[in-house]
Design goal:
19 strands, four-stranded antiparallel β-sheet, mainly beta
């Protein structure tokens, strides 16, 4: 989501759709590539999408053209998060964590402490990021991904994670679990069960921030 009017969605058979009017109409930008699981837009022009078999696509013209980029891994990629037009992370199967710092001209593998399926990635800036996945996996980096360390969280599958800033992040998943940290998620930090947990499972999490003073309805 770029703003309240501009959103990308992706799916099977390389499906990519974009709305510029809050969902009243959708432009078909389908690429015909592999299944796409994740998409992240930096601004109205720049976005990445990822999917099966290490698929990475990028647009720099609002989706008029999506160009493939080379992944150093063939594992499926489930999620992508871009900090700016140059810096992005992608994660997926077998503990895969990839990062680019040059707009995707080169993607590099980062050392992951797990082999679990990683389902979601988020970042507060170019140095601070979180990853979540199967079997109670929540990881954090404070150094741009040079090192990743585990978090003390319940033994659940966490399918979605999002951060408001370097200190505050939420993760959601199996059994309606919602957890939150408010102190940065460091090795000695606290993740706690947030109010509002349900009996179902959450597949993803969307953090909607309202920068204005007016009441917003979601």
């Amino acid at each position: 989501m770029i703003d309240t009017q501009t959103v990308y969605v992706v799916g099977f058979s390389g499906a990519i759709y974009r709305t510029n009017d809050g969902g009243t109409s959708w432009d078909n930008q389908t690429t015909g590539s592999n299944v796409l699981y994740g998409v992240c837009a930096v601004d109205a022009n720049t976005a990445w999408a990822v999917g099966n078999g290490g698929t990475i696509l990028k647009t720099v013209n609002g989706g008029a053209l999506w160009s493939p980029q080379t992944s150093p891994k063939v594992e499926d990629l489930r999620s992508v998060y871009a900090v700016d037009e140059n810096t992005a992370w992608a994660v997926g199967a077998n503990g895969t964590i990839l990062k680019t710092v040059d707009g995707g001209a080169h993607w590099a593998s980062q050392n992951s402490p797990v082999m679990d399926y990683l389902a979601s990635v988020t970042a507060a800036d170019a140095t601070t990021a979180w990853v979540s996945g199967q079997n109670g996996t929540v990881l954090r980096t404070n150094d741009g991904g040079e090192s990743w360390f585990g978090q003390n969280v319940p033994p659940k599958h966490f399918w979605g994670i999002d951060a408001a800033n370097r200190d505050v992040a939420w993760a959601v998943g199996e059994g309606g679990t919602i957890i939150k940290t408010g102190d940065g998620g460091g090795p000695s930090s606290t993740w706690y069960l947030a109010e509002g947990s349900t009996g179902g499972s959450f597949e993803t999490w969307v953090l909607v921030q309202n920068p204005g003073s007016e009441t917003a309805t979601v």
